[in-house]
Fold:
Amino acid sequence: HNMSRRNQIQALRERHITIGFARFLRAEPDLMVEPVLRETMRVAIREDHPLASRAAIRLADLAGEPMILYPKLDVRGLGEATVAAFRQEDVPLIVAQEADDALTAIALVASGFGTCITPESVARLRLPGVVYTPFESETLASVEIQAVYRRDDLSGVLRELLSVLREQAPR
Structure:
């Protein structure tokens, strides 16, 4: 099921799902959080943008560029991490749009509304006119995808899935 982080946590607690996957999770007394994969970041940018031909884009290169942030949530997420990176690296940030999800953010990039810093996996959204350039940042070089599950869940299905995830996780 495609769910927001908040809905995943609620569904876990109500025992509607066994495991969830998200970013920027934190362990809670009843929940376990495990890293699954670390993704490098990319800059989604229109192919006709002057920065699109670069081998990599630094955060400083995005000073003054209209940015699209996502997800627009009331909990810490990629949008907040992006704002923090601009602040920590002392680069001026212009927020052109905020989107609820990756597809909307990349559609806004394709439509010319701005540029978006996004995890590498989003590059699979091959919208016409958008390129995904490697991103260089001291503070936002990568993000971690995490698994979350109930601490008291002893089901065999969960144990097997976690076993596979742990075997496949990059060292």
User: Anything to note?
Assistant: The two ends are 28 Å apart (CA to CA). The chain is about 25% helix and 30% strand. The beta strands are 19-23, 31-46, 57-58, 66-69, 94-98, 116-119, 130-136, 142-150.
